[in-house]
Design a protein that fits this description.
By secondary structure, the protein is an alpha/beta fold. It is 40% helix and 15% strand. Strands 3-9-8-7-6-4-5 form a seven-stranded mixed β-sheet, sandwiched between helices. A five-stranded mixed β-sheet has the order 10-11-14-13-12. Strands 1-2 form a two-stranded antiparallel sheet. Strand 4, helix 6 and strand 5 form a beta-alpha-beta unit. The longest helix has 19 residues.
Length: 402
């Protein structure tokens, strides 16, 4: 394998994001393939024993085992790092593998983490249930309350962990403020950027240290595979994250990496079109339901901040009805075009009831604290004609008497 012409990093970092998404991190074999090669191998053969020893000692470049290196996976990692503006990236088997790795690789018994109350259900489960088992204390706060971040800091606080926009409440938080505060106190910021991706928002430009992703979502973009990624400095990725990952094994398969590589080629096109579609759908829903939560609606409480941090509002929005679970489920059951599904980032429009799906596991008290009510529905707006999505929502709302 060799890098294609122009793949020197000093050159690729000068390319614009749309070019990096198509060509960044590309290697080619002696066959000269234009599409990235798929290396379905667990191990590698060596010319001699000395080569094995040198590679394992870190004295020579080359592959040793696909839990550590795989050409297809490394191409994806280089591409994501370029798009993020990060020095390095490591991919994982799923979004939650990425979140778990990003936290556990740097936290130990006696440490403390401050996290946003509003988050994906499994992310809250990590903070509330998994980390305490290892002696890692957590404090959850309303992320939009900037004073709450400083008030929650302890001498043993090591990490700030949050999403923006948050799943499914669409909370938008002041990334620059939180990251500046964290650096002042020697705290590492870990941000889940899955809803926006680097195409719409680059937290490192606001001072973030570590960016974690469910690449299952917008990066793949077509609901095909599970994947995760963590970006940061070379020092963090190689010296803190890699020892944890190489010995615990939450690795991404080469096939899934190849699929995500293909997805990244159209990320810029998809996410801006889906954002455009989502805004149209959100504007319609504002005329039909009690509350719509979408960052690029002027009615969103952090609209001005969202416009500052994001290039567009993304493909996800949430709505709140007045009739609780029965009315929310009734709307889902009345849909004809939009699928009932708990995935997001797909090219298809998908809708779910978070309280009985993505956030069921955190329990009613935590859901209430997070702002995830029985009346909330989350909608991923896809690449269909937005008028068809609007028509489907219109007929479904009419069927349930709204």
């Amino acid at each position: 394998m060799k890098r294609t012409a122009g793949q020197d990093r000093s050159i690729t970092r000068q390319w614009r994001p749309a070019t990096q998404a198509v060509r960044g991190g590309t290697w080619r074999s002696e066959m000269g393939e234009t599409s990235e090669a798929l290396f379905l191998t667990s191990g590698y053969a060596y010319d001699d024993a000395a080569t094995v020893a040198a590679r394992f000692a870190g004295e020579a470049e080359g592959m040793t085992y696909s839990r550590l290196q795989n050409p297809t996976v490394q191409m994806l990692e280089e591409r994501i790092a370029l798009l993020e503006g990060a020095q390095a990236c490591r991919t994982q088997a799923s979004g939650m593998a990425a979140m778990t790795t990003a936290l556990l690789c740097q936290l130990s018994a006696g440490d403390h983490i401050v996290a946003a109350k509003a988050a994906f259900g499994s992310c809250r489960w990590l903070v509330d249930n998994l980390l305490p088992r290892f002696g890692i204390a957590g404090t959850t706060i309303h992320a939009g309350d900037t004073a709450a971040w400083e008030a929650a800091i302890r001498p043993e606080t090591k990490v700030f962990f949050f999403e923006s926009p948050a799943n499914p409440t669409m909370d938008v938080v002041d990334i620059e403020f939180i990251c500046t505060l964290a650096r002042k106190h020697g705290i590492t910021t870990v941000i889940d950027n899955a809803f926006a991706t680097s195409a719409l928002q680059k937290p490192m430009e606001f001072g973030a240290d570590v960016i974690a992703y469910s690449a299952t979502k917008m990066m793949d973009g077509q609901g095909r595979v599970l994947a995760g990624a963590v970006c940061g400095t070379s020092e963090f990725i190689d010296e803190t994250l890699l020892p944890f990952q190489r010995n615990t094994g939450p690795n991404l398969s080469p096939f899934n990496a190849w699929v995500v590589l293909k997805g990244l080629e159209t990320l810029d096109l998809r996410i801006f079109r889906q954002s455009e579609n989502a805004l149209k759908v959100a504007e319609f829903l504002e005329t039909r339901v009690p509350r719509v939560l979408y960052p690029y609606l002027p009615s969103h409480p952090a609209y001005a901040l969202a416009k500052k941090q994001m290039k567009a509002g993304g493909s996800i929005l949430s709505i709140e009805l007045d009739g609780g679970r029965a009315e929310a489920h009734g709307l889902l059951d009345a849909l004809e075009l939009v699928d009932i599904s708990n995935n997001i980032g797909d090219s298809r429009s998908l809708m779910c009831h978070p309280a009985s799906s993505t956030h069921h596991g955190v329990g009613p008290d935590t859901r209430a604290e997070m702002g995830v009510g029985e009346n909330m529905l989350r909608l991923n707006v896809g690449l269909e004609d937005p008028q068809d999505v609007i028509d489907d929502l219109d007929q479904a709302l009419t069927k349930i008497g709204l």
